[in-house]
């Protein structure tokens, strides 16, 4: 476990590295399915859900604003989409923090809700600014469904190592 005092120095670079790793996982799985399904790994959201219990809201919103700007520059080239949706996601995580951190089950369902919010929000922003045209049926069946499926599996495999690394033992009462 990382000491709580050091966590605020470790989490920003960790989130940046996870953002880059998420992109490689996305490409790997999309290529594995011959580009018929596109899925986005959101280990970053899983880590955000875990560390939101320990770190200050303002610090995390600022951190995610910076990560969002880097995300926009690295992947899209237009600043504003992820620079808006990432801090907004963190603000909502903190707003519902008491419910999210009740048990591992509420954390799991919160991950599903926030991944859905993240994907719908970023797609909606892209549609509003005419950066993307999306067929709703294809979005749900070929993107959102596979994305949620992959993130459910990632949550199952990674939640215990992430919690063990970042949070004290026995923080959830299951």
TrEMBL record:
Q: Name one GO cellular component term.
A: plasma membrane
Alphabetically list the UniProt keywords: Cell membrane, Cell shape, Membrane, Transmembrane, Transmembrane helix
Give the way it sits in the membrane: Multi-pass membrane protein
A matching Pfam family: MreD
Report TM segments: 6-25, 75-97, 104-131, 143-162
Q: Where in the cell is it found?
A: Cell membrane
Alphabetically, which GO biological process terms does the record hold? regulation of cell shape
The entry sums up its family as follows: Belongs to the MreD family.
Q: What is this protein called?
A: Rod shape-determining protein MreD
């Amino acid at each position: 476990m990382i000491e709580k005092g050091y966590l605020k120095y470790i989490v920003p670079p960790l989130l940046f590295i996870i953002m880059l790793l998420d992109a490689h996982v996305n490409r790997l799985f999309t290529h594995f399915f011959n580009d018929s399904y596109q899925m986005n790994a959101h280990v970053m959201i899983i880590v955000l859900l875990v560390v939101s219990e320990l770190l200050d809201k303002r610090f995390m919103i600022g951190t995610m604003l910076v990560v969002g700007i880097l995300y926009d520059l690295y992947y899209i080239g237009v600043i504003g989409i992820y620079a808006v949706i990432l801090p907004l996601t963190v603000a909502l995580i903190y707003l519902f923090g008491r419910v999210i951190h009740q048990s591992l089950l509420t954390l799991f369902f919160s991950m599903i809700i926030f991944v859905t919010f993240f994907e719908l929000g970023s797609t909606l922003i892209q549609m509003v600014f005419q950066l993307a045209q999306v067929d709703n049926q294809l979005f749900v069946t070929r993107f959102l469904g596979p994305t949620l499926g992959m993130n459910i599996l990632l949550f199952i495999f990674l939640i215990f190592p992430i919690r063990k690394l970042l949070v004290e033992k026995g923080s959830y009462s299951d």
